[in-house]
What does this fold into?
Amino acid sequence: MKTGRFPLSRPPTLSPRRRASPSHRRAFGLCLALAAACASPPAHADPGALWRIVHDGCVPHFEAGQGPKPCEAVDLDGSAAEGVAILKDRVGVAQMLAIPTRRISGIEDPQMLAADAPPVFSDGWKAKRFVEARLGGEAPPREAISLAINSQYIRSQDQLHVHVDCVRVDVIEALKAYAPALDDQWRPMTVALAGHTYFARRLVSDDLVHEEPLLRLVADGVPDAKAHMGAMTFAAVGAAFDGKPGFVLLADVFSLEGGGHAEDLQDHNCAVARTAP
It folds into this structure.
């Protein structure tokens, strides 16, 4: 879920084009601190809503043998500390959210880089079946589904959630054309997606199960990302490379002038399901 919080403009620290001086790095850290202190959700937003739905509703119902409602599914993987719940977002025709059943604030939370991080991306990818079911008809191709997580500075909820939904048609076409330029290293793209230039790489994987915790690839591979994970945004878009299933991974810092939240790459109206042959 996103709100209209006013984000910071693109800081030089995470620019793919140049590295910042120490003074710029200190300034960037101060800007992030000020943003965290000053940014606040709209009066109508309840930043704890997702957590209460999962913690007070889905999990106890599931543990009591009453099913996962109001969630679509709950996978506790042995305990609530390791589980993931799938919830239909109120926005969009088919959008799902993959939410840890453990208290985790967002992309900035160090728990998401730990070995025991909940498998929100692999469980999120499994949840595409719920997206497909809501669309009806023939399931959209792999390239039409994505996972996205926004930065901490422009979100309405303080419980980590991964958006599972259709990809914008123009983004699908752009990534299909750009795919031959991708390899296993993070590099800034030479084309923009939804008005923003991302770092991108490919990942050969069917379902991301063996790649968790997936955000480690961002923290360890994107320049300066580990020190500023709260400002990062990330997406995994279904793809195929040389006939093998995989994902296009996209990451970068959010940007006022260039957009830059991975959810912007998604189409919550899922036009691709209507235009697919």
